[in-house]
Amino acid sequence: MNINENDFRGVDLNLLITFLVLYRERSVSQAAQKLFLGQPAVSSALARLRALFDDALFIRTAQGMQPTARADFLAQRFAPQFERIRSILFDSDEFIPRASQRKFTLGMADWVEIWLMPPLLKQLRISAPDIRINVIATTPFEDQAYIEQHGVDMVVSVTRDQAPWLRRETLLSQAFQVLWHPRQLPLSAPLSLENYLRYEHLLVTYRSRARSIADEMLAQKGMERRISYTTPHFSSLPGILQNTASLTTVPQALARAWIRDFGFCASPPPLALPEFDLSLLWHARHDADAGRRWLAGEICAIAENGAAPVTA
User: Fold this and answer.
1) Could you give the CA distance from residue 108 to residue 133 in angstroms, rounded to a whole number?
2) How far apart are CA 214 and CA 225, in angstroms?
3) Contacts of 140 (CB under 8 A, 6+ apart)
């Protein structure tokens, strides 16, 4: 261990805890409440922190206290280390699935839940019957924030964010298929680009933006498809396809399930759409958590035997 005691003279670890709470709360008064301290004590600690790091750390704005670049740098590095210390002090390194009554919170979009949860819950009823799973709806644009700020244990996502504290396990890669109902559209596979452009499309989007990678590729060719309906929910598409002359582009695994369940027809898209990666994400502070490691293993095992959808 390369530790020089003189390096830590004048450093109070409680100051660093106060810094992390201030960074999370962005308010002296709220941080004081969380720390069970008076506001003057937290203000004094902030003054000491500013002197210690020779930086303002937080700037008062109309939206509250905004961290400086130095504060962002420090928080990204301190938070995982303090979580490891907490884990060493208080967490048990033993996890017995069959005896556990633990609740895990997972973040995912509805298409992930459609794919993952039926086989996962079936397996958990056997290996860990008293485990509770709480799923919250997230999007690729929110996943990192949910992991960092909202106490989510893990997220299953297509996000490509690469924060220093973010851990990632790639579950699978997936290609796309175009779907339609034969009662509504008498088309045959493989679908031609002409027919792909002729009919209306249903699109899943998370930011009310009626464009996807397929539209960007078409735009490069000077072409455009007609998007008649956008939604943040994959689960709404089957009913619409059954009742309208529409197309939708989804991944192969979802297409297989919906062909079986709804009688849809499928074709490879007439565009060279790239495959996407679906990943399991968690915070580095959970690396030593035996329960989370076990659940991650269960999810990875499901992924080895299946695949999942994403928007295109």
Assistant:
1) 12
2) 9
3) 109, 157, 158, 159, 206
Backbone angles phi, psi at 189, to 5 degrees: -95, 150
Asked if residue 84 lies in contact with residue 275, where contact means CB atoms within 8 angstroms, the answer is no
Over range 80-89, report the average pLDDT: 76
Where does residue 123 rank: exposed (0-12), middle (13-18), buried (19+ CB within 10 A)?
Answer: middle
Write down the residue that tokens 């003054």 correspond to.
Answer: 47
Which of 32-41, 93-102, 119-128 has the lowest average pLDDT? 93-102
Tokens of 69: 């670049």
Q: If 0-12 CB within 10 Å is exposed, 13-18 middle and 19+ buried, where does residue 182 land?
A: exposed
**DSSP letter assigned to residue 7:** G
- Categorize the per-residue pLDDT at 203 as very low, low, confident or very high, splitting at 50, 70 and 90: very high
Query: Residue 266: what pLDDT?
Result: 96
Residue 207 scores a pLDDT above 90: no
Q: How far apart are the first and last CA of the chain?
A: 50
CA–CA dist 74, 16 (Å, integer): 10
CB 265 within 8 A of CB 178: no
Residue 18, CA distances (Å) to 23, 31, 162 in order:
8, 8, 26
Average pLDDT over the chain reads 87
Q: How much helix, strand and coil, in percent to the nearest 5, is found in the chain?
A: 45, 20, 35
Confidence of residue 309 (pLDDT cuts 50, 70, 90): very low
Q: Note whether 275 and 175 are within 8 A (CB).
A: yes
